[in-house]
Amino acid sequence: MNRSLVTLLGVLALSAAIFAGSYFASQRACLMTRSTDDLSWLRDEFHLSDAEMARVRQLHEGYMPQCAKMCALLAAKKTEVQTALGNGTNITAEARNKLTELGELRAQCQAQMLQHFVAVSRAMPPEQGRHYLAEMEKITLGSHEEIEQSMSDHTGHEHGTN
Fold first, then answer.
1. For the chain, what is the domain count?
2. Are residues 10 and 88 in the same domain?
3. What's the Cα-to-Cα distance from 105 to each of 6, 22, 72, 110, 116, rounded to whole Å?
4. Which of 20, 36, 53, 65 has the highest Cβ tally under 10 A?
5. Which regions of the chain does DSSP assign to beta strands (E)?
6. What is the pLDDT averaged over residues 130-146?
7. Does 72 lie in the same domain as 113?
8. Which domain holds residue 138?
9. What is the pLDDT of residue 118?
């Protein structure tokens, strides 16, 4: 195979891995924030009082419409990306633009989630809030880091070599 074909296949594989990882991360994040009735784990994990739990629940319920809106925007953009990719063997300028737009939406989503998690952490006692925020940051950013790490680890093969 010639070098440009190998490079193109590498870019496609990396794009697919990033797309899949981001998709699963956004799905996991949306699932975590969907139900206001399923916050009992917070009370148990962080030993929250009734007043603290009420504040967390209020913040959570206030965030849900924002989360639902972002999930809908991400789903629509993913459809646009798939349409732009089509069945072609090349990534067009339009597909690149749609991938960039999807990445920007994901970054906005992550920033909004982290902002929400900071607000929730402030409704908790300081030590529990720090622990909660650290865990939520791992979840919010972790899947991207896992993909990046898996692609950069030396696993017996070299990307981009002949």
1. 2
2. no
3. 29, 11, 11, 9, 16
4. 53
5. none
6. 86
7. yes
8. 40-161
9. 97
